[in-house]
Each structure stands twice: as structure tokens, then as C-alpha cells.
Write a structure and sequence with these properties.
This protein is α+β, with helices and mostly antiparallel strands and 139 residues long. The protein is 32% helix and 28% strand. Strands 1-2-5-4-3 form a five-stranded mixed β-sheet. The longest helix has 28 residues. It is elongated, with a radius of gyration of 21 Å. The N and C termini lie far apart (55 Å).
Length: 139
């Protein structure tokens, strides 16, 4: 008896993978320019892309601290946690498709700037009463 196996899956062509990588790198250069502009303003950006997920981490320095409340207003489902060295504001943007984490060292912001951020965060703090305020936000 002879068994003939038929598959509909096309073999992976190394050239196609190489072309895909080249396309991604070309797009990354345009993103690089935007990120450099933010860095000059005092915002460091790291973007992680995984299957089905995009996460952007922003570290806000003193020179950009005045932008914090405006940035947080753009987030959906935002929340704030206190860390050992500062604060982390987390939320989503782009219709909830991109996770954004804003990391701020306590020494980089004034009390007034932090109060402005807290005023625009979406989270209901009463719902978290009695919780551990130093719990790290899970990545």
C-alpha cells in the first residue's frame, strides 16, 4: 500500500523572511526619527512588539514633566501605582490596541505636576482602598 501525503502549507522561503525583516527595519527608521524628537524633549521611548501585542514604555524626565497630565489624558483605562523610586501610569491607546506605561522618577516631578496627573487618571481610587500602594504594575 502506498500513502501519499498532501500538504497545503507552503514551505517557508528564507528570502521571504529576509524581505520581511528588511521591510520592518525600513519602518523602524521612520519611527527612530520620531523617538529621537521625543528624546530631545525629555521622553525616552521603548516599543516592544510581540505577536498580538504592542507595548510602549515612556520614561519621562524633568524637562518633560510638564507634559505628563496631557499625555495621561490621552490614555484609556489608566491607573497609577507608586513604585519604590517614583510612579508608573499604565493604560492603553489606539482604541485599546497599544499598552502604554509611563514611568516617572519621584525626583523628576514636582508635587503640583503629580497632582495634575492624578487628577486626570481614570481609575477609581476608592475601589483600591486598603490595597498595597507599593505593588508594582504587572507587565
Amino acid at each position: 500500500m502506498t500513502i501519499i501525503a498532501v500538504t497545503t502549507a507552503a514551505p517557508i522561503r528564507p528570502q521571504a523572511v529576509s524581505d520581511g525583516v528588511e521591510d520592518v527595519v525600513a519602518e523602524a527608521w521612520s519611527v527612530f526619527g520620531e523617538v529621537q524628537g521625543l528624546a530631545r524633549l525629555g521622553v525616552e521611548v521603548a516599543v516592544t512588539v510581540r505577536p498580538g501585542e504592542i507595548v510602549a514604555d515612556l520614561v519621562v524626565r524633568k524637562e518633560a514633566a510638564h507634559l505628563l497630565s496631557t499625555l495621561v489624558k490621552e490614555l484609556e483605562d489608566s491607573g497609577i501605582t507608586r513604585t519604590k523610586t517614583g510612579f508608573r501610569i499604565a493604560g492603553t491607546m489606539c482604541q485599546g490596541n497599544v499598552g502604554l506605561r509611563v514611568i516617572v522618577d519621584s525626583s523628576e516631578v514636582t508635587v503640583e505636576q503629580m497632582e495634575a496627573v492624578v487628577a486626570v487618571v481614570d481609575v477609581d481610587f476608592d475601589a483600591y482602598a486598603g490595597g498595597d500602594e507599593y505593588t508594582e504594575w504587572a507587565a
